[in-house]
Amino acid sequence: MLRFILQKLALIVPTIIGITIASFAFIRLLPGDPILAMAGQHGVTPERYEILKEQFGFNLPIWQQYFNYVGGILQGNFGISLATKRPVIAEFMTLFPATVELALFAMLIAVILGIPAGIFAAIKRGSWFDQVTMGVALTGYSMPIFWWGLLLIIFFSGYLGWTPVSGRIALNFFFPRVTGFMLIDSLLAGKPDGFVSALRHLILPAIVLGTIPLAVIARQTRSAMLEVLGEDYVRTARAKGLEPRRVVGVHAFRNALIPVVTTIGLQVGLLMAGAILTETIFSWPGIGKWMIDSIGKRDYVSVQSGLLLIALIVMAVNLVVDILYAVINPRIRVQ
Amino acid sequence: MSTDAATPTVAAGPLAGLREFWYYFSMNKGAVLGLAVFVLLILVAIFAPVLAPFPPDQQFREFIRMAPPWAGGTQPQFLLGTDEVGRDILSRLIHGSRYSLFIGFFVVSGALLVGVTLGLLAGYFRGWVDALIMRVMDIILAFPSLLLALVLVAILGPGLFNAMLAIALVLQPHFARLTRAAVLSEKSREYVTSAKVAGAGHLRLMFITILPNCLGPLIVQATLSFSNAILEAAALGFLGMGAQPPTPEWGTMLARAREFITSAWWIVTMPGLAILITVLAINLIGDGLRDALDPKLKRS
User: Fold this and answer.
1) ipTM score of the complex?
2) Which residues pair with A70 in a beta bridge?
3) Which pTM was predicted?
4) Nearest Cα residue in chain A from B227
5) What is B18-297's CATH number, 1.20.1070.10, 1.10.3720.10, 2.30.130.10, 3.30.565.10?
6) Could A144 and B279 be called an inter-chain contact, meaning their C-beta atoms sit closer than 8 Å?
7) Would you give the DSSP letter of residue A156?
8) A83: buried, middle or exposed (CB in 10 Å: 19+, 13-18, 0-12)?
9) pLDDT digits (tens, 9 = 90+) for B17-36
10) CA dist., res. B115 & res. B275, Å (int)
11) Residues B224-238: tens digit of each pLDDT
12) Residue A147 to residue B143, Cβ atoms within 8 A
């Protein structure tokens, strides 16, 4: 198992180096002079230009710039935001829990609804339940989620008035930040009404972000179950006279779960892309909205580091999924 | 499989393959429906200037934010209502279909061309060519697609053409990976060896001998990429990084729609519905194609 993990780690090293080259190249690929591009329409005085050039190290040879960049990253130095003058990593860490909370809740919705829907659709293959579920799943999969979010706001916030339109929690709540997750922090501070407020803010964005993963999981669970239900050992279990619930629940489902777990893991990249749109629509203070705002403000140092950090996080999660996959499916380890 | 017995056994020839394909494809009713909608969309796009009641940019300043006639509006000529500057939404949607389909075709052609070529090179030559190409593909795939497209557009500058380039670049690794995998499994087959023995050169082996036998999964992937391209271009337009106003691109039409979610729901609803119907139709076709072209996946 250790060998498997080390092998996987060795394989991603070139990709990580490639990612750092890509994010390093980003600022240098901006049209025209990078310093002028970062300064925006106000421009800079020649003296200031020289100072900035020195500060960013643009006067050094390109390879030296790259090594300085990577050296900085290894020491946790991701640069200073041009817009707020704060370290980028501090900004990122402040906003990151909001995105994680949203993504986890979205995934929870997707898994809780998607897996049972897929199982029942497979068992009742060809029934109206199967057809309706798969029709809904394909519609969800085809959904432009930014529009879906707007529709939900129109109905639940505008028409019914049930949920707030934006933000993470009502402004009158204030409690110390412990985990960065509003749902947990509000309970830790002993404010159940704060928890309710946070939940009301979270529910619509989570539904929007969870829609495509939900559809993917339901479809994947159904096809994995159909595949497994046709296997010999399932037939044997049936022939032995086991009750159908046991056959489906134990014999079939546990084996069908393997590809489903992988699918769930692979949704992380999708969740990050979805978070950009969802957070923008709901003014959710996470890193997706922060990236969009940074692009809008031409805060290219933040964009560069955000790009790098997000790619590294997605890679790390995918690595964990690969390892988990090997844990639940020993056949993979041997290869 | 019980359906095998019913497979029509027609004499060989190009038409026979097509007929067999249609036999499997048409068994999936959803796919046929999707195809019908898609053909309709192409017709709408071609005849947009004839079909649209008004030019897409004509502003009727006296009828700003007019509701559709079936939802309390007083102007029957604006079937889906008017937007914030009094343009007929139906006309804009009809013209917008041209953009969406063009985006799909352009992005998929670009991604196919580059991805298939890279995949062929990697799978055919192996060694350092393979390692280099596939590592670059890994790096591209490590970034969430929409994020990478956004950043590329930030480099290239906002606009429809740059958005399409960015999306094509982000989508092509899927084609490269698929092609490489297919080439690897085909390369050691006997027909390839016999072509090589007969004196076929590298280019002929790659493009004429091997490639046609890898087409099935590529066609399915191309369909999926078509709908992805439309969704991502719409998302970029929505974020202000794709087609720029007043272009009647569907995503761009939604960019300012957030302001009207309480006052004029039809401005928000209609463009998104157009995107959803288009993407759904293409995904239905994709499911049908997968059933017809990829026997291994038929059970799903």
Assistant:
1) 0.88
2) none
3) 0.89
4) A142
5) 1.10.3720.10
6) yes
7) I
8) middle
9) 788 888 888 888 889 999 99
10) 26
11) 999 999 999 999 999
12) no
